Task: structure prediction
Amino acid sequence: MNRAAPQEREFKPGRPRSENSKRAILDATRRLLTQVSVQKISIEAIAKKAGVGKTTIYRWWPNKAAVVMEAIFSQPAFHNIIPTPRNAVEGVTVQIEKLCRQLSGKNGRLVAEIIGEAQPDPEALKIFITSFLQDRYNTLNSYIEGGKQTGEFDAGLDTDSAIDVVLGPIFFRLISGQELDNGFVDDMTAMLIKALRA
Result:
């Protein structure tokens, strides 16, 4: 007598569940950051809010700083997408304007807190550089180097120093609690472009 073939078992992939957990953790982190500072948020609080165990968080991230930075910098407001500029001057100008917008208001407060948290922690500082700062640096590097080639900027400029001059005033105002308002952006941009052309 022939026996009926056993039904094949259907295995549901585990990946969607893991992705759901990751999304819940990031959402919980963002919600908590509306109530507490970066310094006061904890892995325990994030896990409780997300409805997961701490071990689940550590499967995705090495520490609290990494969770917080992905939660913040993965948001559309922090994407560094810039339309193709017509020239190097426009490229630098647009990058400055976009960065100042990203660092204004509540988002700016969070980034300032992240910078403060990262100062005594080399690993956290490295995450901040790779997840936020490096892309802006690379973009400015490309525009300034391009401007040196086309004659828009002084060919003798040291590009690294020029980028420090561009970013320095922005981050100084950020960590000192000053506004990155339109007046500041316009005045600073005009001065910087003049200096780059000298």
Residues 1-14 have pLDDT under 50 and may be disordered. The longest helix spans residues 122-150. The chain is about 70% helix and 0% strand. The CA atoms of residues 104 and 180 lie 6 Å apart.
